[in-house]
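To close the section, here is one more complete example, presented without commentary so you can practise reading it yourself. The ligand is 2-acetamido-2-deoxy-beta-D-glucopyranose.
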Amino acid sequence: MIIIFALMMTLCSPSLPLFTVVRRASLTPSQEARNMVDPTATTETILNVTDYIAEARAREERVLAQIREERALAQIREERALAQARELSLNCTALERQNFLLQRELLPAKTSTAAVLCNRFLVESGLLDRDPTLILSAAYDKFKTKLVTPSGKGLTKAGRSLLSDISWKSGMSARHRDVANGLQMLIHQLSSVIHYPKLVRRGFVCGGHPPLGIAVAMAVLTLQAEGHIGHDVVVIDGDYNPVAEMKGGVISSWPATHAR
Ligand SMILES: *[C@@H]1O[C@H](CO)[C@@H](O)[C@H](O)[C@H]1NC(C)=O
Ligand SMILES: *[C@@H]1O[C@H](CO)[C@@H](O)[C@H](O)[C@H]1NC(C)=O
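Output:
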């Protein structure tokens, strides 16, 4: 009866083995030795093979333990390095913020006697005013959707009209795609270094070589139009020549209608 049942099981589901195979790992070294050697082998041979297997297993165990230990150490080292990198990055952010606050205190006074080219400062102060609770990169990501399409490869309708206005008034030109690219990465590309160009007598200055110089002017003009940058700003080209002036979100050609 049992045999017939087993046969039926085999026929109905041929992929199921009738007997489960005993796994190698569950054998003791002496059981495994008996399986390996000739049935007529002497006890001494079996004992020798048993010893050999036991020793091989111990060696394998030692190597595995060493690998586990090294992995654990590597993980600890990696976590420590990551924590250090996080701390360093936080320290940098704190220093950058301090630097920015210092500039915000000093630059307005400085602009009464010198021209101050500070692309990053202008964008940063506008963004901080626009979204005081966000970190800079998050505030910029939110802001740039006004000018750059979600793919990051093109300009929005507002962005295109702003670009043509700035190009028309400043005489600087660049391809839409290059300006979009400049705007996409703007916050990472703008140096926090401040220059004091001699070609304009005084005041806040932004710009530089297109397309990046135009991208900066677009961001500053937009922030100015939204009321987040109170200063008037002169736009310069890549050769430090003044090419336009931005006032209250409106750009006019240089020389501006009023004398400086
Ligand atoms: C068993 O091992 C011993 C020592 O390693 C060796 O002298 C002996 O010849 C071995 N015997 C067999 C049957 O392999
Ligand atoms: C971060 O700054 C603190 C105190 O200002 C300092 O003790 C620490 O070493 C700095 N960390 C790194 C990774 O530079």
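Once you have examined the tokens, check your reading against these statements. The two ends are 111 Å apart (CA to CA). Confidence is low (pLDDT under 50) at residues 1-23.
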